[in-house]
Amino acid sequence: MALDDVRLVTGLDIEPVIAPEEAITAAIAQHYSASIDLMDEAVKHAAGIELEVTEDRGEEISLDRLRTMVEEAPVVRVVSLMINQAVADGASDIHIEPQKRNVQIRNRVDGILRDVMTAPKAVQAGLVSRVKIMANLDIAERRVPQDGRIHVTVDNREFDLRVSTLPTVFGEKVVMRVLDQSSTRLGLNKLGFGPVMQDTWQQMITKPYGMIVVCGPTGSGKTTTLYSTLHRLNTVDKNILSVEDPVEYQLARVNQVQVNPRAGVTFASALRSFLRQDPDIIMVGEIRDRETAEIAIQASLTGHLVLSTVHTNDAPSATTRLVDMGIEPFLISSSIIGVLAQRLVRTICRNCHEAYHPPVEALHRLGVDPNEGEEVVFYRGKGCDRCKGSGYRGRLAVFELMTMTDSLREQVLRGASAAVIRTQAIQEGMRTLRDDGVIKVLEGITTVDELLRVVFVES
Q: Kindly report the CA angle at 331 between 328 and 333, in degrees rounded to 5?
């Protein structure tokens, strides 16, 4: 009877399919929220504006017409609603993706891309140009990538949107990185550190000199950890300097330098100048080459605390990566006082979490013996309106903190491989990414599936 009712109302043939409850809940939350309805309405108004658009190439509109379009209320409202929706969802990125016959808008929420809406092709030129004007970019230049920044205030919170445009065959693709300025004030206890590891980290960052490295792939939360650490260290008696590419967040009383290769400002040149600026603490956004690494290490050996990042998969690999860059092992062993590796995992939605008994295979995969102690209970999210049916809401880091002991320094001096250094560190009590993740699974913070998604777990 329900199928007949829908058939009569729509005038369409109905094809029944089976779908899990959480998928239906997520679809309802995605397509029928009030803000999405408002955006749909604004898009329809924007699409109704008379445009001179060819079928495939929306960029054929004249510059004068573009400038007029971007000031018209429907286009302005669409962009405003799009940004508000991203902030409400807690998105880290907004994607505007031109397709052949439409424009796809997606948000990255908790590390996962989600469709927000599909807009008509007619709004593409106005939408992209409005964002470019807000970011002080050249709307006449559509053939080369451009980068800019937008500062907005939503619900009394300040956000910086880092805008990047990229020419594609169907028009310019736009990605806006949403940077919440309040996230720099996150306490270290909110990042995901366990009590013991947090104490170790706090002791490490209060050392008067030495080098601390944070490592992990892009999007693993390294910047948030470094900024939260700087916020903890940022007192009136400290002179803190940072060189970044780009400067993502502004910190009061921290002297931040933006890398600008065209003007001759590189990581290495900025670091050389820092040493003549009477610094106490130096942050290097990323160590990419031998020259930057050498200057950073020399700074750490001459009485400064240096914080930096390296792209490696785990903590022990950071030392071998520096050796690969051409740094002498004795300099590495003398300067580095600790290495922190991290990944971000989605946390279970507290509104719809439920307990369940995992299969034995899952326990074995995580290295948990089902025959020891009490019966093991895991948790997962059923999916609700608050988490848009995903079962997850928010993210936390899983960490691997390697403190450089005398025995580890000896291994580095000998030119030991990352595997040997890792084995030695584990023998001395280092908790690996996998170990920290398993603890968070057992504590009901995240799920097995999420841990396996972001951390390689050997079976």
A: 110
Q: How far is Cα 182 from Cα 153, in angstroms, rounded to an integer?
A: 12
Strand-pairing partners, residue 106, are 95, 115
pLDDT of 31: 66
Asked if 399 and 193 count as a contact pair (C-beta separation under 8 A), the reply is: yes
Which residue do the tokens 């990255």 mark? 108
Closest C-alpha among 66, 69, 23 to residue 48: 69
Is the distance from CB of 229 to CB of 205 less than 8 angstroms?
yes
The single-letter code of the amino acid at 156 is N
Which residues fall within 8 angstroms of residue 141, CB to CB, at 6 or more apart?
none
In sequence order, what are the residues at sequence separation of 6 or more whose Cβ sits closer than 8 angstroms to the Cβ of residue 442? 368, 376, 378
CB 75 within 8 A of CB 126: yes
Element (H, E) at 435: helix 433-442
Q: Which one, of 307, 312, 321, lies nearest residue 341 by Cα?
A: 312
Query: How far is the C-alpha of 278 from the C-alpha of 303, rounded, in Å?
Result: 11
Stated pTM of the model = 0.80
For residue range 125-160, list pLDDT tens digits in order.
889 999 999 999 998 888 999 999 999 988 888 899
Nearest to 178 by CA among 124, 142, 131, 128: 131
Give me the residue label for tokens 């006082």.
Answer: 337
CA distance 351 to 387: 8
176 or 45: whose pLDDT is higher?
176
Instruction: Evaluate whether 431 touches 401 at the Cβ level (below 8 Å).
Output: yes
In single-letter form, the type of residue at position 456 comes to: F
What are the E-state strand segments in 216-314? 240-244, 254-258, 281-284, 305-310
Contact 398, 345 (CB under 8 A): yes
96 forms beta bridges with 105, 174
Alpha-carbon distance of 431 to 434, in angstroms, equals 8
